[in-house]
Amino acid sequence: MVRDWVASLCRDAGFEGLVDDARLCVSEAVTNVVEHTRTPMIVTDVILRERSVGVTVHDTSPYPVPVPHDHHSDAEKGRGLGIIESLSAKWGVTFFSGPVAGKSVWFLLDEGDPSVSN
Length: 118
What we know:
The chain has 118 residues and is of the alpha+beta class. The chain has helices spanning 2-12, 19-36, 80-87, and strands at residues 42-48, 52-59, 90-96, 102-110. The protein has a single domain (2-110), classed as Histidine kinase-like ATPase, C-terminal domain (Heat Shock Protein 90, 2-Layer Sandwich), CATH 3.30.565.10. The longest helix has 18 residues, at 19-36. It is globular, with a radius of gyration of 14 Å.
């Protein structure tokens, strides 16, 4: 469901060339939350900029800390963050505290030079 929403936002904003990468990256980020946490809530935010799309997937579980692993391309599990890392211009993890603690995995997809972001 979130894949289709992100894809629709990208298409509507004129980022047709980023649709497939956005769908795959958000799917991997959400799957990691589902498989590795017991969070009762997942929130996805999308920021559309002039030449890039930023996506953040928030959960309410500060653990485990997301870390990309070196896996073979034919591995069935453990490749999600590596995929995000390879397709995005930038990505990272942000931790937050307060009444609801947790973390966010975010990534930036740039339709131009991947080394340049807005």
